[in-house]
């Protein structure tokens, strides 16, 4: 699919992997809507790439729909990238064996609501809009790429909520691709490994910690960078024969229990 001149919506697009996707889409000639909760970073990135910022909480259907409408106003809306997500770490039961110290259920529900339900909500709304597009020469009306995680497969201790949410994204990829095949919309998912984002902090201690983490990667022995993930996202968008697939981009890592 040719993404030159199309309109694209990126949730969680203000920074990290989402931000790298925004930059590469814009560099490829797409008109990008940056959808994020972070006003300052989102607006700054939109200004940088000549895009549009829309404040979006992906647990709010009305806000997602408003972002989709904004993307439609920009032009030929054919691209959705779901990168919005949160993480929490907590063991399933507490050390004292009391009910009250078991995993916080509201925290579990929130991660599922943002990462999984938010992803599906964005897909169903964006795909509805894309279904009105005229098909291109390949019969395509649009393409969706979701960001999951290797935690979907190699969830570590304390990652029950996060792994559940990302595993859900992996699980919906094929059935949703099958649903949307009828209208010529492809769906793929990219599952990152250890990626160098601001979550690790800055300074000497942070760099030492990241270097230590990188030793667990098969090859190359380092953390990935957001641009490497964004490159795979764009390949999934451009390659018209990529559909219903989950692609790990992780340097060959298989995460240990902890």
Overall helicity: 40-55%
Question: What is the total tally of β strands?
Answer: 7
- Overall pLDDT confidence: 97
Determine the structural class based on helices, strands and strand pairing.
alpha/beta
- Classified by CATH, the class is Alpha Beta
How far apart are the first and last residues' alpha carbons, in Å? 40 Å
CATH architecture: 3-Layer(aba) Sandwich
Number of domains: 1
Strand order of the biggest β-sheet: 3-2-1-4-5-6-7
What attributes characterize this protein structure?
258 residues, alpha/beta, Rossmann fold, seven-stranded parallel β-sheet, 8 helices, SDR family oxidoreductase, Sc_DH/Rdtase_CS, oxidoreductase, oxidoreductase activity
What would a concise description of this structure say?
By secondary structure, the protein is an alpha/beta fold. The protein is 43% helix and 15% strand.
Walk me through what this model shows.
The protein is of the alpha/beta class. It has a single domain, classed as Rossmann fold. The protein contains eight helices and seven strands, in the order βαβαβαβαβααβααβ. Strands 3-2-1-4-5-6-7 form a seven-stranded parallel sheet, sandwiched between helices. Strand 1, helix 1 and strand 2 form a beta-alpha-beta unit. Helix 1 crosses helix 8 and helix 4 packs parallel to helix 6. The radius of gyration is 18 Å and the shape is globular. The mean pLDDT is 97. Belongs to the short-chain dehydrogenases/reductases (SDR) family. One of its GO terms (molecular function) is oxidoreductase activity. Pfam families: adh_short (PF00106). Keywords: Oxidoreductase. This is SDR family oxidoreductase.
């Amino acid at each position: 699919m040719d993404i030159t001149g199309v309109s694209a919506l990126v949730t969680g697009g203000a920074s990290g992997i989402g931000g790298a996707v925004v930059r590469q889409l814009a560099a490829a000639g797409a008109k990008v809507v940056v959808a994020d909760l972070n006003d300052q970073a989102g607006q700054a990135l939109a200004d940088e790439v000549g895009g549009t910022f829309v404040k979006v909480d992906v647990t709010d259907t009305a806000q997602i729909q408003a972002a989709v409408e904004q993307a439609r106003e920009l032009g030929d809306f054919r691209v959705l990238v779901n990168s919005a997500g949160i993480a929490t770490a907590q063991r399933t039961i507490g050390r004292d064996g009391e009910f009250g110290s078991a995993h916080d259920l509201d925290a579990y529900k929130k991660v599922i609501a943002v990462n999984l339900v938010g992803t599906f909500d964005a897909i169903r709304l964006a795909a509805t809009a894309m279904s009105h597009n005229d098909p291109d020469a390949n019969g395509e009306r649009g393409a969706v790429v979701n960001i999951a995680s290797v935690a979907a497969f190699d969830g570590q201790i304390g990652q029950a909520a996060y792994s559940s949410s990302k595993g859900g994204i992996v699980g919906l990829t094929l059935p949703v691709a099958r649903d949307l095949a009828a209208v010529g919309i492809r769906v793929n998912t990219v599952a990152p490994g250890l990626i160098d984002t601001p979550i690790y902090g800055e300074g000497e201690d942070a760099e030492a910690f990241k270097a230590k983490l990188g030793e667990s990667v098969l090859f190359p022995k380092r953390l990935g960078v957001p641009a490497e993930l964004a490159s795979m996202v764009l390949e999934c968008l451009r390659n018209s024969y990529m559909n219903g697939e989950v692609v790990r981009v992780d340097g060959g890592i298989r995460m240990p229990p902890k």
